[in-house]
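Sample entry (68 residues):
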Amino acid sequence: MSEETPICSAKGCRADAVWVLAWNNPKLHTPDRRKTWLACEEHREHLSQFLGVRGFLKDVVALKDWDA
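Predicted structure, serialized as tokens:
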């Protein structure tokens, strides 16, 4: 297991991730498949909206509670 701290998926952001955004693209993935982006506090809303307007966002979970 890596000891690196997960970082935010927002372009150019190097902040520690504290949220997991679970999503899938129904045109590409089966309904049960989940891809993930990580988000810091600052980018959680922006990334959620980006996925949400496309109908991709399925769940937002605190990283500490995420069980991949």
